[in-house]
Amino acid sequence: MTTFCFCPFSLLLLYPKDIRMGVFGIRYKPGIFCGGATAWEVGNDNNGKANPPLILLFWHGICYHDTNTDFHRRDMCMKILRDGFSVALSEPTLYVDNQSRGRSGHMTHAMVEYAPGRVIDFNANSSAKIYTGHSTFGFVEYRLSEDGGETFSEICQFPYSMEALLDGVHVISVEKAVGTDSGAIVAICLRNDAHALCQPWDTPMVVISRDGGKSWSEPREMCGFKGRVYDACYRDGVIYALEFCNDGTGDFCGWNEEHLYRIFESRDDGESFRELCVVPIPNEMRGYGAMIFDEQGNLHVYAYNRGDESKIDHVVSTDMGKSWGKATQCEVKKGLRNPQINQIDGIFVAHGRSADLMHFVLYTSRDGEIWDEGSAVRSLSYPCACYYSNNLVLKDWHGKNRMLIQFSESYDRERVNVMHMWLSIESEGERV
Q1: Residues 289, 242: contact at Cβ < 8 Å?
Q2: Which of 88, 222, 329, 398 shows a CA-CA span of 20 to 30 A to 54?
Q3: 361 and 271: one domain?
Q4: CA 136 – CA 131 distance, rounded (Å)
């Protein structure tokens, strides 16, 4: 494995099978992007022997292209060229350095803008020894930002999670949270079995802060269904929470008729919730879930399909969940485990773990139904249960939309650090 850093002049050590020279620059294997401070694996020939390396000298501003996706690297930025627009990605930065403290962090990536420019960002502080780091055994931390995610405070401990850990029955994850018009932060808490990897799950709980994360309410039950809340959003004074009502006993994917996707709503800043609807998505071999209101106010729900990882289920409501259209299947060629979906500047963005467990993949769509072929924006040399993620659309200093993406990345098997990366959409006229 070779690691390199982007600087005015840099040396790359590459294998000939991984690179092809082209008129406009360098062609890498489809889906692989090599950037500053990015580790990647060199290939072997069919006999298991390494090919002789090729050393290249390159400089700022070089353009990269592959057979599936055009990559443009300039000023520490990766650009994915699409029809009529570009997706610009910053170089990922280390947000939580679990490696240096001998810890891991799974299943807690909630991010909320609870007031203009004010962000709360949750992460897990979990054992690096149990299940080689792929467990929820630990507690939850959070940090605060007052400048739209540019900088963050020192780590704060989420009190409810430590209380639960000391009680020894459950350990807590905060995968989703919302901010309300009143400035309340509503954290939706999963109750994982303290003696298992994470499941079975108990009923979800809600904890509220009304002073920007300085203090928190006592936890209260969100609903009477055991399961995992996969997404939550806020629209016109209402909180919507998507729960897959399967406690995970035996399997986190659905396997009987009682395992249903339900949406719960709150009209009082999270003080109480009621069931809004059952989402008409097939439940057998389904898991994970994503929910989004698009810019026209339509409500989209997506689900992972373990029976065919090249497809995700998709259903739309045009009346806030009162009725639904027919569920369809969207093609996601590289797979999309634990999908996270949002919309920025009219473009739908989806990201998650690839089906082969080796890549952090990103897709775009203009309608939320037809997705591109996907791009592997981060890669590992071995299959690993990481690349859990979340995102939050914020404003930069010029008032332009940009998306903060948070994701876990392996530093040793299932032991993970937490990374941050910025995404923005550029119109065709903005391309450099």
Answers
A1: yes
A2: 88
A3: yes
A4: 10
Spatial separation of the C-alpha atoms in residues 323 and 316, rounded to whole Å: 9
How far apart CA 424 and CA 404 sit, in angstroms, is 9
Answer yes or no: do 53 and 116 share one domain: no
Asked if 270 and 157 sit in the same domain, the reply is: yes
3-state secondary structure of 18: helix
pTM of the entire predicted model:
0.84
217 contacts 226 by C-beta, under 8 angstroms: no
For residue 378, the domain's CATH number is: 2.120.10.10
Phi-psi region of 250 (alpha: psi -120 to 50; beta: other; left: phi over 0): left
Give the closest residue to 348 by CA, choosing from 332, 328, 376, 370: 370
Is 158 in contact with 180 (CB distance < 8 Å)? no
DSSP state at residue 227: S
Confidence of residue 20 (pLDDT cuts 50, 70, 90): very low
Per-residue tokens: 8: 């005015």
Band of residue 18 on the pLDDT scale cut at 50, 70, 90: very low
Collapsed DSSP state (helix, strand, coil) of residue 182: coil
- Phi/psi-derived region of residue 31, left when phi > 0, alpha when psi is between -120 and 50, beta in every other case: left
Please say whether the beta carbons of 317 and 323 come within 8 A.
yes
Q: Name, in order, each residue with C-beta under 8 angstroms of 46's C-beta and a sequence gap of 6 or more.
A: none
pLDDT at 8 over 90: no
Q: Residue with structure tokens 């897709």?
A: 363
User: Strand pairing of 328-331 and 311-317?
Assistant: antiparallel
82 occurs within a structural domain: no
Amino acid at 208: I
